[in-house]
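Morning - N-(aminocarbonyl)-beta-alanine inputs below, output right after.
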Amino acid sequence: MGLLIRNGEIVTVGSRVHADVYAEGETITRIGKNLEAPPGTETVDAAGKLVFPGFIDPHVHIYLPFMATFAKDTHETASIAALIGGTTTYIEMCCPNRNDDALAGYQLWKSKASGKSACDYAFHMSVTKFAGETEGQLREVVADGTASFKIFLAYKNFFGVDDGEMYQTLTLARKLGVIVTAHCENAELVARLQQQLLAEGKTGPGWHEPSRPESVEAEGTGRFATFLENTDATGYVVHLSCQKALNVALAAKQRGVRISVESVLPHLLLDKTYAERNGVEGMKYVMSPPLREKHNQDTLWNGLALGFVDTVGTDHCPFDTQQKLLGKDAFTNIPNGIPGIEDRVNLLYTYGVKKGRIDLDRFVDCASTRAAKLFGLFPRKGTVAVGSDADLVVYDPKYRGTVSVKTQHVNNDYNGFEGMAIEGRPSVVSVRGKIQVKDGVFVGHRSRGEFLKREPSYFQM
Ligand code: URP
Ligand code: ZN
Ligand code: ZN
């Protein structure tokens, strides 16, 4: 059965046009005025609404063994939450730790998602050590369609790699034409500062930020950039949180280093005073890099408006209040992370577009198109065009609501954005031509999601 979206305003990067979109099966086959559709076509009236390409979250954690526990979502809960919020594709971090076999980890992560996701998905493969077997294993992973890596410069002895391993990963990535995403904080400094603070009796969640200050993130970002520069690899800084780190990334861009930047919703909307709240209320806001001083938000929004910050992800990583309490005696034991997959698009639209911080063009770009381009999904994903997958978001800019744990679909007992007003939400969301969401309600197939195979595309002459 076909799908016809009538009379909406189609918004893509560089274009806004009032037209109909018709999908035959999984693919957009026609865009134009007053399209005729065969009998049996499902028709959606999008008058007064915006029609966006399905949004892409380039940084999520769903299956994640981390800090003595597991993140709360399954692919079923996370994908339904994502779709209700307008995200039709996510890229999950596949994160075996240093002691795990990387290939076995990759198969495990794939098995957790297979047949369980309602939206499409891909993986970034984390390289958490570089040993004798690593090159062969990574070649297999790339051949399987996972054409991006992830390294952590933080989380010493768990996910973290040393400089030698970073060099080897980037050198291989350069050969394979693969982009490398990186969590950029200096692991040694974090470990030392944590020990020092705990020794001084500073154990509450408010000390998490001082244990990984902006300079520690700027150092990690600068070191990653320098390694990219000297290996000729292509990189992407995940969840960049502050002005100091952005300045370092931009200076590298100016030197011609191929480096892109992601920021995440918590750093755009929340500041470090949230983590300074008492007890578990503060623990809910412990993530890495930490929430920063408020002035950094303006820097990130301005960077986003100008395209210096390329994408907005979530780093979705839900731990509930019981899990957060693992760190009641020491902030170093609080599982790091905060959920966000469901609210990213609506919060970005409300606090970005409606507040005049970014225009609609950048909104679509940073929440969908740019990620599709950077990670080898474009033009299948990330745009509304003939031949693209019919992942469509009919967006109602007149909707008014409030973010709340009471209405969320994410599997967690709090929402870090609780009480924030939203001005707009998806009224219809389709995945490859099939309507999955109507007005905040999941109406689709729970196992519709497919693993997206991607080709390497970063070969330099
Ligand atoms: O605090 C965070 N960000 N938790 C998830 C793991 C990571 O660093 O991405
Ligand atoms: Zn990270
Ligand atoms: Zn992450």
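Note: Residues 183, 238-239, 288 surround zinc ion (ligand 2) (CB under 6 Å).

O.
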